[in-house]
Amino acid sequence: MSKFEKLKFDQVKTYHISERENKVEKSKFATALNRKSTLEEYLESLPDILMGKEFKEFVSHFRTAIREKNTVIWMMGAHVIKCGLSPLIISLIKRKYISHVALNGAGAIHDVEIAMWGNTSEDVAKGLKDGSFGMCQDTAEFINLGLKENFHNELGYGELLGEKLLNKQAPYSELSIIANCVKAGVPISVHPALGTEIIQQHPSLDGASFGEKALLDFQVFANSLSKLKNGSIVLNVGSAVILPEVFLKALTVVRNLNFPAYNFHTAVFDMNRHYRPTVNVQNRPTMDGGDGYYFIGYHEIMLPLLIGLMLE
Questions:
Q1: 61 within domain boundaries
Q2: Is the pTM of this model over 0.70?
Q3: What pLDDT is attached to residue 127?
């Protein structure tokens, strides 16, 4: 005999499944594909459940913004360029499917190196051992001297780099997001952070021109945000700290000046969930209207899918 008393279940209240509210039903299931299925059919085949449902919603918002020529802001970290995705971003820029591109400082460095020399992304661990990491003279002088040569004019960080790449007829400028933005007249802004980028390890850096150009681009970015309205799109792709913080501050200025920057849709595409993109891009800006999304996956898979759907 057991020493322990047991609760009897014979009086438990039950009900039929027809009386229950269910989150999942067969109509929301994925549909089968075949070898000849199009990208559009792939999108429609996704289940209307969790991220499948949200991804289809965001694609619809994005397509509507493009169709209505609404503002589309694209913020990007450097990894997007290092993954070889620049040609896809440029395809959207050329079609004016993007209204503004914002890069962090590292993004500008990789973009310039690809445009000028066709390669980028050094072995950091190897260079750190002997103090050679980030000490490439060519990259630092191209950017730092460009900043210094344009001191006290109205060109911002991104615009002056784009103009310099075009004027020098960079051998691979067709792969430069910055150069293509300037060429197409799409605002490009660079948002660097002092002490975080390799160009700041060099004697060629001039702090005054660096600060001036970064401030001008903050103003260029804020101007683009002032055009946000119902149905606009803001994406943050691969920036965990810098661009979400810049976005929040610039959006505050815009709303402080009474621009109606509300009811837009935001989306974060990244390989991990991070605090600042979650609160500064997905949640806080859309608290009073609009939708915020967060999609996790490798850039080199997720972005071709998203951009392919926009082009289709």
A1: yes
A2: yes
A3: 84
